[in-house]
Design goal:
The complex is a heterodimer of chains A (about 550) and B (about 140).
Chain A (H helix, E strand, L loop, with lengths): L3 E6 L3 H12 L4 E4 L7 H4 L25 E3 L10 E3 L2 E4 L34 H5 L14 H16 L26 H13 L4 E2 L38 H7 L3 E4 L2 E8 L5 E8 L4 E11 L3 H9 L28 E5 L14 E3 L15 E3 L5 H8 L9 H10 L3 E5 L11 E9 L5 E6 L4 H20 L4 E3 L40 E3 L14 H17 L2
Parallel strand pairs in A: 1-2, 1-10, 2-7, 3-16, 10-18
Antiparallel strand pairs in A: 3-5, 4-5, 6-12, 8-9, 9-10, 11-14, 11-17, 12-13, 13-14, 15-16
Helix pairs in contact in A: 1-6, 1-11, 4-11, 5-10
Chain B lengths: L6 H14 L13 H8 L8 H19 L8 H12 L11 H17 L11 H6 L6
Helix pairs in contact in B: 1-4, 2-5, 4-5
The chains are: A alpha/beta (about 550), B mainly alpha (about 140).
């Protein structure tokens, strides 16, 4: 008799869904989270320590001390972190770490909540484009139609606002969004002019935000602190206020916070038997379960599998084909900043409202592409740190004058590029460096594939074209470089596939070598779309969890 | 007075910060609280820079003495700017124990952080920088 029917490790986008679906089906569930539950006040509005600008730390975890990772210096264009031997040791807020929030709800506590469905072509990239040299580009073993019912469920049950009629890049929606799009800020109407002039598709950014009161919580008040922060009125829909409460209200789910899973426990016969955890006070416990679902994010899920080596699987659970941790990808975010002759800023948040999917596919000579959107409201210090023009003095009267005259006349256009997976972009474990619990840390190495940089460069040009067509009088922004990508959109490290020789999980996200171990985060994504991936993570987790229940 | 800096060093720091973000009809860096931001950070995230900051301020005064026979804070505004531009380009007459241009670039960053980030960090007193640029906060 196991302690629980199921253990879900990680309470982010995928873990919340898994806990809710399993608990509502009557399974006893233990949901484990390494971070704490954070109130709005605890997340706070620290402009120097948030998931958007993390100069000195993070408002939603993890703590900057005790949670290091190591990085191959060749993976990042600048020296980052602290050199130790061949590697660099990074703290969570340092570039190259690939951080995700560590708190109840994980990234969904502080995200922008852009709620994109992937396009049908995104699931068959190899068939559409062929496989470029040096890449591990492959088709998903499932398609858009397989996820469609779950996309709809996420949109209705978690709560998405948008305008389904504007989503002309997708097959027609059978169900509209349950809530209309958020109000269009002034700057988005300016950008609309550019799209119209260019004849490009323009659509309303769908978001996991209540534009009307929904699911017992109020509507968005259009504040200026959305992405990177918690919602002051609880109108942003994340795991912490949707799926996790549902799981808990079923009476079948227990949530334990500030616990770290050290390793999975396995039987000899190809099944996991539970997890070994370490609590905040350092004590260890073994907890058994009939099913284990990993939802730790692409870096930490791979790390946990690799740290759980057994006599049968000495290279790590599910790693018989040396696939665990490979194909790490995220999203390049090429774009540009534009200065306009008129005031753009009207304070109407969250901001990212208007997008185009004109260039997600069908770009001559390129593999895929990406979505472009205008940006959420940028805090003054984020603008000053990230978006300030390179040819304007950074100090003295001219610098102050520039900020004063132009902060409200500036906006950026950017978007996520569908990355071309590189098998050498990978997560391994580094036993020479341990976290606060004594567990070997994740070691990151490799870089993006050159095709990703090429597509990103093309998308940057399209962003500049859009800004100019909207009336920008000056445009600037960095050119994409090659580096290891991952970040909050991290994916790919336990790729899905029919063939265990080339994948880690099957087409229901079960680890090939284990009868009862599943992955519900971005790790199974074979490719990661040219879109924010959270709705796909949630939809896939829902499908996986229903499959677990149906085959119990 | 502060435990980190003596009176001369504080006077020099104020002059540096107000040269980076000078007062006009809106407050300069010092009046907006950037000094408070920095003093707080130098006992927190930037504690490792205490010695370098003291060295920077000491050397800045020495450089001003060499060039103009007075402390940095006693220079006219354009003389202060000229001297900081020389530091930025590592064109110095005296010996510095730190790399002047690279450290100065950090000071510029810290000054911007104190001025433009949220008042909860100790600078941007009463949101004055946000008022100046038009960033309003609701909710």
């Amino acid at each position: 008799m196991s302690d629980y029917d199921a253990i879900v490790v990680g309470s982010g986008a995928g873990g919340g869904v898994a806990a809710a679906v399993l608990a509502e089906a009557g399974k006893s569930v233990l949901l484990l989270e390494r971070g704490r539950a954070l109130s709005f006040e605890q997340v706070g509005r620290d402009h120097l320590r948030n998931q958007r600008l993390a100069i000195y730390g993070h408002n939603a975890g993890p703590d900057i001390e005790g949670n290091p990772r190591t990085l191959d210096p060749a993976s990042f264009p600048m020296p980052v972190g602290e050199r130790q031997g061949e590697h660099r040791i990074l703290r969570p807020h340092e570039p190259g770490y690939q951080n995700n929030a560590a708190c109840v709800g994980s990234g969904t506590r502080v995200y922008a909540g852009q709620a994109w469905r992937f396009m049908p072509q995104d699931f068959r990239m190899a068939s559409e484009y062929g496989v470029p040299a040096g890449s591990s580009l492959a088709d998903w073993p499932i398609g858009y139609e397989d996820l469609l019912p779950y996309y709809e469920r996420i949109e209705w049950e978690i709560g998405v606002c948008g305008d389904h009629r504007s989503m002309t890049h997708l097959p027609a929606y059978a169900r509209p969004y349950p809530m209309p799009a958020l109000p269009l800020p002034h700057k988005s109407s300016v950008h609309r002019r550019g799209l119209d002039a260019l004849g490009w598709q323009g659509l309303r950014v769908p978001r996991l935000i209540n534009s009307l009161p929904y699911n017992g919580r109020p509507a968005c008040i259009n504040c200026q602190h959305c992405v990177g922060y918690a919602c002051p009125v609880d109108a942003k829909n994340g795991s912490h206020n949707t799926t996790i409460p549902r799981a808990l209200e079923s009476g079948n789910c227990s949530l334990r916070t500030e616990v770290m899973v050290e390793r999975l426990m396995c039987s000899v016969g190809g099944a996991v038997t539970g997890v070994e955890i370490i609590t905040a006070d350092g004590s260890r416990e073994s907890i058994s379960a009939d099913v284990v679902v990993l939802s730790c994010g692409a870096v930490e899920t791979a790390r946990l599998l690799l740290n759980s080596a057994t006599a049968q699987e000495p290279g790590g659970i599910g790693n018989g084909s040396d696939q665990v941790g490979r194909h790490l990808q995220g999203h390049y975010y090429p774009g540009a900043v534009g200065l306009f002759p008129e005031q753009l800023y009207d304070g109407v948040g969250p901001g990212a409202s208007l997008a185009t999917c004109e260039f997600n596919h069908g770009n001559e000579g390129l593999i895929g592409g990406g979505m472009l959107t205008d940006e959420d409201i940028v805090t003054p210090i984020t603008f000053w740190k990230r978006d300030y023009p390179p040819d304007v003095p950074r100090w003295g009267p001219a610098a102050k004058q520039f900020m004063r005259e132009n902060f409200c006349r500036i906006n950026d256009i950017k978007g996520p590029v569908q990355e071309i997976p590189n098998p050498d972009a990978r997560v391994q474990v580094n036993p020479a460096v341990r976290d606060r619990y004594g567990i070997p840390v994740a070691h990151l190495s490799g870089t993006s594939h050159p095709e990703t940089v090429r597509t990103a460069s093309f998308m940057r040009e399209r962003a500049i074209e859009w800004l100019r067509a909207s009336g920008a009088i000056a445009v600037w922004g960095r050119k994409p470089q090659q580096y290891l990508s991952g970040g909050q959109h991290q994916a790919g490290t336990c790729r899905m596939g029919e063939d265990p020789a080339h994948s880690v999980v099957d087409n229901f996200c079960r680890v090939h070598s284990q009868s009862n171990l599943f992955v519900a985060d971005g790790s199974p994504h074979v490719t990661n779309g040219g879109f924010n991936p959270v709705e796909t993570i949630m939809a896939l987790a829902w499908r996986t969890s229903e499959h677990i229940v149906a085959n119990w | 007075m502060s435990a980190l800096f003596d009176e001369n060093q504080l006077r020099c720091l104020e002059a540096v910060l107000d040269t980076l973000i000078p007062p006009d009809d809106y407050p300069g860096a010092w009046q907006a609280g950037v000094g408070d931001y920095l003093l707080r950070q130098l006992t927190g995230d930037l504690a490792h820079l205490q010695t370098s900051y003291r060295a920077f301020l000491r050397c800045l005064d020495a450089e001003a003495q060499y060039l103009h026979q007075c402390d940095f804070a006693d220079l006219a505004n354009d003389e202060r700017s000229d001297l900081l531009h020389r530091i930025e380009k590592n064109r110095l007459e005296t010996n510095w124990p730190i790399e002047p241009g690279a450290f100065f670039a950090q000071v510029v960053e810290h000054c911007g952080e104190g001025f433009y980030s949220d008042p909860g960090n100790g600078g941007n007193r009463e949101g004055i920088a946000w008022q100046m640029i038009g960033f309003e906060v609701r909710g």
